[in-house]
Amino acid sequence: MRLVSDLRILYRLTCTRVRGGSHQERLEAFYRHQATGYDDFRKRLLHGREEMMRALEIPAGGTLLDMGGGTGSNIEVLADRLPGLGAVTIVDLCPSLLETARKRIADRGWANVTTALADVTTFEPEGGLVDAITFSYSLTMIPDWFRALEQAYHLLRPGGRIGVVDFYVSRKWPAPGLRRHGGFTRTFWPTWFGFDNVYPSSDHLPWLQSRFETLRLDERAGRVPYLLGMKAPYYIYLGRKKETDSPQES
Ligand SMILES: C[S@@+](CC[C@H](N)C(=O)[O-])C[C@H]1O[C@@H](n2cnc3c(N)ncnc32)[C@H](O)[C@@H]1O
């Protein structure tokens, strides 16, 4: 069963090209046929998600936005902590994936979790500033990722936490303390992922480090299913908005 589901997803990933339309139409065209097998396949591709979610500090009663949260699978990691949290919102632009998230919320009876069909570069929650924001393998799929991060910065309360996990490549000459990838890695992965409109960047980490106080950064590489032992670089970033920063005007 898993093989059939994998083959269907691999076919989508490797043999079909999504072109034209709006960003939302491209996302829907890409994910529409994967929504059911999505979680099982991505569990073996998207490394570090559980670790990032577990390490994320959210105060009692605190609010969370999971930006580009897709099927809401990351919220499973928080299940034990959910009763002690305030509102948790899964924000995503893809109707098919959010439909799966809504079913999950109903099945689990998560009373304080909701979904929002919205673009994270402009999304404004009803309750004002939030305590924590996560991006789990979504920044690389957001063309204006810098606007998504600006918006997240704007929506976080001072002292609030940001957690990001995603594919990336290093700069040719990274800042001291950061890993340096060879030319093949820096070229191959953006090209390979780029076929599916996924863009590993060398600029996400420097942006995060320049705006937030870094609490934790792990740079790693994880296996890609069916790609003969090749490993794609990914990072886990946990940061804090400085207490002295006031929310920016949008
Ligand atoms: C690789 S999936 C990751 C989903 C989920 N966070 C996870 O870890 O399984 C990327 C997600 O980003 C969403 N996305 C891409 N661009 C977006 C945007 N501008 N606004 C909201 N969601 C977006 C996609 O619809 C998709 O659900």
Keywords:
250 residues; alpha/beta; Rossmann fold; 34% helix
Order of helices and strands: HHHHEHEHEEHEHHEE
Rounded to the nearest angstrom, the distance between the terminal CA atoms is 48 Å
User: Which structural class do you get from the secondary structure elements?
Assistant: alpha/beta
Bound molecules: S-adenosylmethionine
Q: What top-tier CATH class fits best?
A: Alpha Beta
Task: Report the CATH topology name.
Answer: Rossmann fold
Can you say what the CATH homologous superfamily is? Answer: Vaccinia Virus protein VP39
* Main sheet characteristics: 7 strands, mixed
Number of strands: 7
How many structural units, i.e. domains?
A: 1
Total DSSP helices: 9
Give the integer mean of the pLDDT values. 91
Helical percentage: 25-40%
- Hey, roughly how much beta strand do the residues contain? 15-25%
CATH architectural grouping = 3-Layer(aba) Sandwich
| Uncertain parts | none
What is the CA-based Rg, rounded?
A: 17 Å
Order of strands, main sheet, comes to 3-2-1-4-5-7-6
Please state the overall shape, judged from the principal axes of the Cα atoms: globular
